[in-house]
Write a structure and sequence with these properties.
192 residues; two-stranded antiparallel sheet; 5 helices; elongated; 2 domains
Length: 192
Amino acid sequence: MNIKLQGIDLLGNLGLKSTQDRLNRQAERDNKIAFIEQQKENLKNMKADTIDEIARKLDMFHGYEDQIAATRMEYNHSQMFHVFDEAQELAEKIAEAAEKNEPKTPEERRDDMIEEATGVENEGLLDELMDNLTEAIEESTEEMVEELQETSEEVLSEDELNQMMLLEEEQIERLEQEKNVPENYIPFDYRI
């Protein structure tokens, strides 16, 4: 179970990028304020014997108070702009989730049914089958070319060469047709 606290997943996941930015700005603000508060504490240790030194110490104190207020105001100002970014980022995530949940078109449903019926669900398997068939075609073509070269060395008439070429073309066409049909394809009848 994941427990979230102001956009922080206690298991280490920071969620939205804008949430992470906000947390970084908060940490930066807190560090600045802590530094200025430490400077104010150091004023207590300063000795002031004259009225001028007391006035200077009081001015420094008010200056530190102004710096703290300015730091807080700067954070609030930047926070106003980043609220819009956070809302926009969240809206994009919601839009992506809604797009995933859109109903499928009839074509997509038909494709899913065909994939389910043929048992070919992984495109990697189909790609592998296509590669194997392509290699087989190339090997058989090379073998036929070698056979033709050997037989052409023997005296053959043009009619015999044409007949061999036709046979070779028919074999290539047959192999290409077989390439388009997956190995585990079993023809069946169904109606949609």
